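Re: that backbone. C-alpha cells:
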C-alpha cells in the first residue's frame, strides 16, 4: 500500500493525494443536502421515474430563463403525485408505512441557459411536505435535461424507507 492509501482518515488520505473537502453544500431550495436513516425493521424502496402526466397525457413544457415558474412547478407537483402513487402501491396501499423519504430526484426539461432548477423542483418538495409534514426533508437533486419521455416537463424519482409490517 502506498502512503496515499495507507492508514489515517479519509480526510488525511485526500490531503495526501492533494485534495481537500470543500465546505458542505448549502441548500438552494426546500430540501436537505443529505438524509440519515436507521435501516432496522425497514425496507428500502426506490420509485422509478414518474413523468409529469395527468390522466396519462404528458404535461408538456420546457423551462426557459425569464419565464414564470408556476406551470413548471405544477408539472413537478403532478409528477411527484404520480411517484407517491407508485409508493402507495409499494406500501400495499398504506402510506402510513413510509418511515421517511430519503431522496427526491427531479429531471427538468430545460434550455441550456435555464438556472432555476431548484426553484422548479420545490413544486415536488411541496407535495412531499404536504403528504408527510413531520418528516425531515429528503436529500434532493435537480437536473436539467434536453429531453424526457413524451416531451414531459418533469420526471421525479423517490427513494424511501418503509416500516416492515407483517
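Recovered sequence:
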Amino acid at each position: 500500500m502506498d502512503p496515499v492509501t495507507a492508514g489515517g482518515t479519509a480526510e488525511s488520505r485526500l490531503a495526501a493525494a492533494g485534495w481537500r473537502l470543500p465546505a458542505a453544500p448549502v441548500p438552494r431550495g426546500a430540501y436537505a443536502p443529505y438524509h440519515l436513516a436507521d435501516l432496522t425493521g425497514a425496507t428500502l424502496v426506490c420509485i422509478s421515474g414518474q413523468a409529469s402526466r395527468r390522466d396519462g397525457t404528458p404535461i408538456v413544457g420546457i423551462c426557459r430563463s425569464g419565464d414564470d415558474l408556476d406551470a413548471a412547478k405544477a408539472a413537478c407537483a403532478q409528477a411527484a403525485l404520480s411517484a407517491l402513487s407508485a409508493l402507495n402501491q409499494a406500501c400495499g396501499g398504506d402510506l402510513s408505512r413510509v418511515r421517511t423519504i430519503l431522496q427526491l430526484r427531479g429531471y427538468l426539461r430545460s434550455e441550456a441557459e435555464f438556472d432555476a432548477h431548484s426553484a422548479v423542483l420545490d413544486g415536488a418538495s411541496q407535495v412531499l411536505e404536504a403528504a408527510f409534514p413531520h418528516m425531515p426533508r429528503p436529500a434532493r437533486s435537480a437536473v436539467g435535461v434536453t429531453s424526457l419521455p413524451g416531451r414531459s416537463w418533469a420526471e421525479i424519482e423517490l427513494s424511501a424507507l418503509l416500516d416492515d409490517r407483517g
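Residues 1-5 have pLDDT under 50 and may be disordered. The domain at 26-163 is CATH 3.30.1330.40 (60s Ribosomal Protein L30; Chain: A;).
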